[in-house]
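Researcher: I'm preparing a figure for a lab meeting and need a structural model of a single chain. I don't have an experimental structure, so a prediction will have to do for now. The sequence is pasted below. Please return the structure as tokens so I can convert it later.
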Amino acid sequence: MSYFINPVKEDQCLFLTYEGEMPPIEVVAVRYEAAGLLAEKHWNRMVVDITELRPVTAMELFVFAKGLSADLPPSARIALVVRPEQTKEARIVENVARNDGAFMSCFFDADEATTWVKGMKPREQTQTRSVEKRL
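Model: Understood. Here is the structure written out token by token.
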């Protein structure tokens, strides 16, 4: 398994991307690393992209998201990016995480996930991009 943790200071957001296989012990280690980085920076936003992970079973997705929501503070805003064929499982995971007190939503598109996790409406994101293009 490979993973990438990308802290983006301007967004005060941590982007975590998984690729390949998902051995449970490594997943836990990466979750702790990401949670520690969020705490260190005093941030509460994270986008987790698992679309490039080997096919994930419903149970693996559930355990992954449950652990993710348990490792982060209740104020964390978590966007989980999944593949379209994981729709049913993603909705269940989202509901369970929210019932546990986590602020988590699932998405198929990383840009939409980023917009949501930043708390921006799509129009605000378009305006921000327009300003960035002018600079």
